[in-house]
User: What shape does this take?
Amino acid sequence: MKVLLSLAFYSLISRKVSVFLTILCISLSIILFSSIDNFRKSAKKTFFSNAKSGDLIISSRSGEIEALLYLIFQIGTPTNNIRWKSFKDIENHPDVKWAIPISLGDSHKQYRVLGTSSDYFKKIQIKNKKLEFHKGEHFKDIFDVVIGHEVAKTLNYKLNDKIIIAHGISSQDFHDEFPFRINGILKKSGSTTDKLIFVSLEALEAIHKDWQGGFKLPNFKSKPRSFNESDLVPKEITGAIIKLNSKIKIFQFKRDLVKYKTEPIQAIIPGLALTKLWQIVSFVEQILFLICYFVVFITLLGMAASIYTNVNQRNKEISLLRVVGASPRSIFSILILEGIMISLTSILISILFTLLLNVILNPILDIEYGIYLDNNFLSTYNIIFYCAVVLISILVGLIPAYRGYKKSLNSGI
Assistant: This one.
């Protein structure tokens, strides 16, 4: 076997240009597959990490995925609200550890405004880490505001700058009589919080005192800080994130909320809803994987075609091998070993190159998109894939190997 390996190795060296191009093509196809697979896993992990803070999400009854999108990812528009009294009833339930209210609807330029309590910054976690402040702190005064990293960077905002909030997502109606002061800027997390503007629920209630049914009341002007505490208790919120004392009670608590008699409320388990959402968009990754499989397979066919073409041009080499005593079976084995060597070399190069690519791209993807690429290229799935590449290289190499075997039989030596 050692002699056969040596002969196969030096045979490849003698054809280094064509062999190099073949290895390059196979390596690139494996790198493409590995990179897409790694990016998919990392993106999915990041996607799911956005909803790990709470056990349940509550909102008015609508589609689960719809509610998940606007409460967790701030995509879309809520159709109905839930009463503040209902939220307080749920918050005071003995099974509830904590509850974070969320109110959506206003905006500042192209960025969403999220009304909540200061507990949001203490309880909500992104990628298993609490939100951290780059500068300042959470809102202390009614008209304090906290902005995400991207908001500060794009709009060139800094602490103590004044901003005006607009009514609605793309409304031209501004709450210009209530300027907000930037009291905190969050560190970049690579999540939707980077694009949010956080205000207190009391502030949202104050700026909407002169609004009714989505319209501004004529000849009515409210002045900042002219309200007492009872005036600023919210009447409604969009939803809330709930954390229970025990995960065992999640399904029971969810069923209890469905039976809530005061108003129709739905409770969503974030992990299950995210799984449904991921299944909807999973066809895209399936198409990408299918393309990658075809690329790898076609590249391996190209390797077989290259070896097959070389067999027809290696009559002298085969004849010399027969002269020195190589059997037709040995020549068959040499050609198979060439395919295995090419595929193994390609796999090794692709692993090393992908690791290098991860080292380069990881800081960029982590900072800009919050996606951290794993360097686990020896997982069970990857090992199976690499073994499949070697096996396919053997199978597609059988044709040129058999051709070489027949040539050695017909050489007459």
In short: The mean pLDDT is 80. DSSP finds twelve helices and 16 strands in the chain. The longest strand covers residues 96-108. Residues 2-47+282-410 form one domain.
